[in-house]
Amino acid sequence: MLLVALFVLCQRCAVVACYNAQREGMHHRAPRRRDFIASSFGAASTLLRYPTAPGSIRANADESYQRIVPVEKVAEYIQRFCNSEFLTSVLDARSFLYRGLFSAQSEAVTQSDGLAAIVVRDEPYDLLDPETYQSKDAATYFQRLDEEMRRGIRPSNSHLGTTCPKEAAQWGMAASIWPLGEKGVDFAWIEGGGVFWPIDNANRRIVTTQSRGVKLAEALQGDAWEIMFRADRGFLAVPAELDGALRSYLKKAPIFTA
After folding, report:
1. In terms of Cα–Cα distance, which of 226, 37, 22 is closest to 134?
2. Taking the model in full, what pTM does it have?
3. Band of residue 117 on the pLDDT scale cut at 50, 70, 90
4. Out of 10, 141, 166, 226, which could bridge 195 as a Cys pair, Cβ 3.0 to 4.6 Å?
5. Smallest Cα–Cα separation from 188: which of 230, 226, 228?
6. Contact assessment for residue 225 and residue 240, using Cβ atoms and an 8 Å cutoff
7. What strand order describes the sheet that includes 117-120?
8. Cα dihedral across residues 250, 251, 256, 257: positive or negative
9. DSSP states along 173-195
10. Which of 114, 119, 130 is closest to 181 using CA atoms?
11. How many CB atoms within 10 Å of residue 235?
């Protein structure tokens, strides 16, 4: 009987050790943009284990999200801190740039005080990661594009947005994107419009950038065009559900009424 008890005890210890090892491996795994699609809003809350000061939520050890409410304050923040050239382009195009949020970011904008905008400053650049599109070919394509673009904006220092909120919603909660600061901000898109990936190898794809003198406003008016954006100082993300109210407040802003 003693031998049987010892045997059972060893089995239980082995199971506990295996469970702890799996949890440690999961803890060190960095969240990917595709994680949102595979997880529900309920599961997303497990990413928010480290509450910080009121008005912000920590998604992981590296980033806390500053929340801004109500919409009137969001409009004021955009006027004060958003890149001025981008604001002018939005004014000319009368169209926003969107992006799907991580699950933790979505949790941050949907709190008891209502929908809020969040400031995102340290989101990892993931276009060179095969897990982003679940494709090694996609990672190879963006790596080659990164080498071709070389300086300024390129996949390794940028994110992708889209002119279509429905397309953005395929990655997570759709939110309009507002790059912050006057330096370290640039944009690039496929000449003639379209998405960066997947690609049609039959056609030559030319990537154009705002720095070449092409107007960003024209790209923002495109139908479901993807736009690569660089925002070294981060960006403001505003839930697309607030588009109508945000437009109303921005129309009253001096930059829009001048």
Report:
1. 37
2. 0.75
3. very high
4. 226
5. 228
6. no
7. 56-60, 63-68, 117-120, 235-239, 174-179, 98-100, 159-162, 226-231, 185-190, 207-209
8. negative
9. SEEEEEEBSSSSEEEEEETTS--
10. 119
11. 28
